[in-house]
């Protein structure tokens, strides 16, 4: 069979999730068998995550040593280990569209998750862990926040939670803040910005669930850095979870419901001349890629995708046009920077590293390996050991670098690396390091 087209840039087909054939289990399993057979014959992605070793072990332990010898029920074991990082599609696979084999492993996994969710629903734990807004609002109540944080650090209560909910007692859980980011930042919808290249020079911040409830200080640091560069920052009128946790669960209707809240609020700001920024790579990717693939004919979704930027992408675009201040006052020394998977697949380049390297007497050790966290994967009892195994090479590189700081644009990945290092301290967000370097 010809491999013509394999050297062309990868392209994604829209996710045909509203077609009933998408949920046809028999048709799904035919596609799973086809995809698994191609992956088995290639094995190029074996080091990316645990989905591929799981598949290859199933094949190697079967009677035929081929995919046809694997029990269909065992196909789900592969699906369960895929957390939709998209790296196989964008960095490894030679058979993605426009190749005639038309292989999109993440989308096949997403389809399988959606079929399983429609047929079986989800466990209480999985529904709870993916309901980030609900957890944040409850855990963020002033008295409740303190109790939740204490419970999450207590070994006895964590063991009880593990036995009842299946949340691994060894997993590092985030703290909750009653003083959320949206409470800390004020709206300033009348500010003026100076255009530079594709940027309008003023941004509406999508706080994100994690940034709002768990890491509000990084959002404050983002605002300080942007405003130091004369880029006004305001908040969206309202927001809901971007939908990524529900997407990974296969609950596509919940993703659509979140879109109906977020997109109108974002379009309102874009129409008023604001760009959009979010501090968490997964949320940026949701609006840049996942929603456009789910709603390819929605003009408002396309408008938001066009206006959405990673924070460091935005700042480096400003730098390209002479609009970034480089009046750094404090060197950072050596920084070990873990590249978040959902930042890599945005295809924007290593903008975080580029900005950090503008700081005098600062060098960056780049770590391009998955941390194994995936939002909820690492905290689940059945996956925690695997997630730690995936994270160990990252932690080893952090240790070997003897860096003054270690960081990741994905705060959850950074926390997982910290857990793997058995580090009691908290890693620093890259935007917080930039604020420190500016001395503001």
TrEMBL record:
Pfam families: CCG. Residues 203-288, 335-410 form the Cysteine-rich domain. One of its GO terms (molecular function) is 4 iron, 4 sulfur cluster binding. It comes from the Bacteria. The keyword Signal does not apply. Keywords: 4Fe-4S, Iron, Iron-sulfur, Metal-binding, Repeat. The keyword Repeat applies. InterPro entries: Cys_rich_dom (IPR004017). This is Fe-S oxidoreductase. It comes from Solemya velum gill symbiont.
